[in-house]
Amino acid sequence: MNSILDINSHNTMTAEEILDEIRFPIQNLEQTLSVLTKLSIQHEITSEELNALLNTLHHQVVQIAKAI
Fold this sequence. Notes:
The protein has helices at about 15-40, 45-65. With about 70 residues, it is an all-alpha fold. It has a domain at about 25-65. Helix 1 (about 15-40) runs antiparallel to helix 2 (about 45-65). The model has no long low-confidence stretch (mean pLDDT about 75).
């Protein structure tokens, strides 16, 4: 895998290989949501920070959807 944000999915991959590919992106998604929750509770975040977090979440969900 190139990064935790990008998922390599190929038609020749087994189900186990695809599940292994999405394991880290799902962990990243969970961590990003946790950070977003903590930031909004503890202190204000800028619109740029919020936008970056939302873009990361969106990208991750799209990558996971493509893989499965």
